[in-house]
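Hi V.,

You were right to ask for the full record rather than a summary. Here it is.
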Amino acid sequence: MKVRLILAMVFTFVFASVARSQEPAASPSPAPKPAMSRAQSQRIIIATEKKLWEAWKNKNIALFKATLSADSVMIGDSGVANKTEALKALEVPCEVKSYELSDLKVTFLNNSAALLTYKSTQDATCAGQPVPATVWSSSAYVLRGGKWLAASHQETPAK
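Predicted structure:
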């Protein structure tokens, strides 16, 4: 009786092992996504900056909420503002008739940080006051969770 029990256990083990070896192999884990190339990142950063200018013109604060990093810092003639303060400042009524960005240049500080510099000309008023017609701007971008986010923006009126 003991022999039969032992043989039954051995056969069960052998058949189970053979059956498992004939099952298709578990699918390998998906290959990691390749990192964005610098050229791809550059295009995304420039396109994002242009979308933010268009959002300013169209009073689309939602795009700023989605695109500014949580720890973003904005620097303007009123001083330094965090994300919450910057979003509140966007509520000031602005009339943007036109704008143009030129001389755009992306400088990568490392694989997840870049600085965008450019010149912008604009015909706009905010709270009834004209904004400088030409400014030199810089925007810092950080790559977080696979998405480029605006971490800082600064403008200096051109002479």
